[in-house]
Amino acid sequence: MLKSQDIVIALKLFAINHNKWTQNQLATWLCISIAEVNAGIKRLLKSGLLTSIYLPEEPVKAAKPMVNKVALQEFLLHGIKYVFPAELGEITRGIPTSYAAAIFHPHINQGQDMPPVWPYEEGKLRGQSFLPLYPSVPKSLTLYPDDSFYHFLVCVDAMRSSTSRARERKLAEEILTGYLNAYEFK
């Protein structure tokens, strides 16, 4: 059974474009334990969202997990909102997510609604609490900024949210699909 941190791990692996990484580095970047990273990678491999590849420059026994782009895209577009629905809460300070993120600004009129934010004390925007896929996401993005990873997460959040309008979900799907299709693995 997948856990929400598994999706965070898969999105981070996709964002780093399969450059060299270790489980220890991944745990540090995501602000989660090495044990959680290890267990998450095993669940992602079992689910088919990751696949093992053998790198020519590495010994045969050193297979590296790689994102199964087609499976991840299918899961994010069609399953994420059912498996990990958004949880909204009180008004708080945090980091913009879903349609409140800057990548949506040219396309969506924010209106008078309180923007969705990941609760985080150091956040600069006041809005409605929108729990991230995993609690360490805001800290991770603050300590180790990664625009691609952030964009993936906010698009996924727009698709997870029952309060997102159809137009916002469709735009998030288009942006995320564009990112997924544009990535060439190194």
Describe the structure.
- This protein is of the alpha+beta class and 186 residues long.
- The chain folds into 2 domains: 4-81, Arc Repressor Mutant, subunit A, CATH 1.10.10; 85-182, no CATH class.
- The protein has helices at residues 4-15, 23-30, 34-47, 69-78, 80-83, 137-143, 147-160, 166-182; strands at 50-54, 63-67, 88-96, 116-119, 125-130.
- Strands 3, 4 and 5 form a 3-stranded mixed beta sheet that branches.
- Helix 1 crosses helix 3 (34-47), helix 2 (23-30) crosses helix 3 and helix 7 runs antiparallel to helix 8 (166-182).
- The model has no long low-confidence stretch (mean pLDDT 89).
The tally of beta strands, per DSSP, is: 5
Rg result: 16 Å
**Uncertain runs:** none
pLDDT average, as an integer?
89
